[in-house]
TrEMBL record:
The keyword Lipoprotein does not apply. It is an enzyme of class 2 (transferase). PROSITE patterns: GGDEF. This is diguanylate cyclase. Gene3D superfamilies: 3.30.70.270. The chain crosses the membrane at residues 12-35, 41-59, 133-152. Signal peptide: none annotated. It comes from Cocleimonas flava. Its EC number is 2.7.7.65.
């Protein structure tokens, strides 16, 4: 059985670490309360530890980071308010690291929305229990922490977005690049492998390659060739659904990931794209065509193998005369290996 490697995202690692650290931080306090007979408080803390640990486990299993980071934050904030009221306002000191953790886990806007009611709930207690000067200093320090966390979180997000753009998008066409394709295929493959309900995680790849692009470049020039790649990208982005993803795999090769679609449905989409390319005037007075290979996700397979099956189907389409769609049928165990190797040898000699 092949071993499927799972590459965890930074977000997953952050949430799992935050849940472990939170659970381990609160647990000794729960034990301490229990030993001192504060059973109610110990119970709240144990429940918080269990929920927080479950959230970490959920991320590990489902790889969802959006809902789990929000849930983790809500639990921490609810625990903070509950313990402040159950013990006393000495617990308020935990507000500072919790504000930072919430901003660390969520967007600045979401964090502000979660923190506003929490702080409003804590203020009456602080007002009642603290002297005016203590209340004022708590208020000022919380506001400073909030402003600082908010500004830093927004700045990090801006820089992160810019960096993600550079890392994940192709500079010429603006399509997603090969690096993000590799990550995405890995994720889809591992989700498909892990989930029992396979039907909901089905996906297919359409890999296509512009026909005779070298000749187009040689006759019309490289800049005109670039225009074709740019126009083709615009064209296809308008054709596919919001849930589909479009990538430039390299050179004149592109990939569409069709989420929730089987081999035959994706084959139909590939045929639509093929006809659209042929009929669109991507460059004046020139008919551009492309050849397609389509492969459906299958279990117990490395993601690169999934793409390689589409690649083999694409080469068969090229060999059969180009400007056509071929499907990689997972059930049909025909050995295309030799044909594929011969074709590659032939290509490298040309
Ligand atoms: N204009 C332009 N050309 C590119 C770019 N990237 C790769 N190419 C060219 O794409 C051409 C690909 O040539 P081949 O791999 O021989 O493929 P082909 O001519 O399309 O032939 P078939 O695949 O057999 O149809 C090469 O001439 C590359 O220089 C690019 O970003 N812009």
């Amino acid at each position: 059985m092949p071993k499927i490697k799972i590459h965890r995202s930074v977000e997953e690692i952050l949430i799992m670490s935050a849940s472990i650290v939170s659970a381990l931080t609160v647990l000794p306090f729960a034990i301490y309360r229990y030993i001192n007979g504060q059973y109610g408080i110990a119970l709240v803390e144990v429940v918080a530890v269990l929920i927080v640990a479950s959230i970490g486990l959920l991320v590990w299993k489902t790889r969802d980071t959006i809902y789990t980071s929000a849930s983790l934050s809500v639990i921490m904030l609810a625990g903070l308010v509950a313990l402040n009221y159950m013990i006393d306002s000495s617990i308020f000191i935990w507000t500072y690291p919790i504000i930072m953790t919430v901003y660390f886990l969520n967007s600045a806007k979401k964090s502000a929305l979660m923190l506003a009611p929490t702080l409003l709930a804590l203020l009456p207690l602080m007002y009642m229990e603290k002297t005016s000067i203590q209340f004022a200093s708590a208020l000022v320090t919380v506001i400073i922490t909030l402003i600082f966390s908010h500004v830093v979180s927004r700045k990090i997000k801006q820089q992160n977005d810019r960096l993600q753009n550079l890392i994940n998008y192709d500079g010429l066409t603006g399509a997603l690049n090969r690096r993000s394709l590799d990550d995405r295929l890995d994720l889809l493959q591992s989700l498909y492998f892990r989930h029992k309900t396979r039907g909901s995680n089905i996906a297919s790849v359409i890999l296509f390659d512009i026909d005779d692009f070298k000749i187009i470049n040689d006759t019309r020039g490289h800049l005109e060739g670039d225009k074709i790649l740019i126009n083709l990208t615009k064209h296809i982005k308008q054709m596919i659904r919001k849930t589909d993803e479009f990538y430039r795999y390299g050179g004149e090769e592109f990939v569409v990931i069709v989420n929730g679609s089987n081999l035959y449905k994706s084959g139909e989409l590939a045929e639509k794209i093929r006809a659209a390319i042929e009929n669109a005037e991507l460059l004046k007075d020139l008919t551009v065509t492309a050849s397609f290979g389509v492969a459906e996700i299958q279990s117990l397979e490395e993601s690169q193998n999934w793409l390689a099956r589409a690649d083999k189907a694409l080469y068969r389409a090229k060999r059969a005369g180009k400007n056509r769609v071929y499907l990689a049928n997972p059930e049909k165990r025909i050995d295309y290996e030799k044909e594929y190797e011969d074709y590659k040898k032939e290509k490298s000699r040309a």
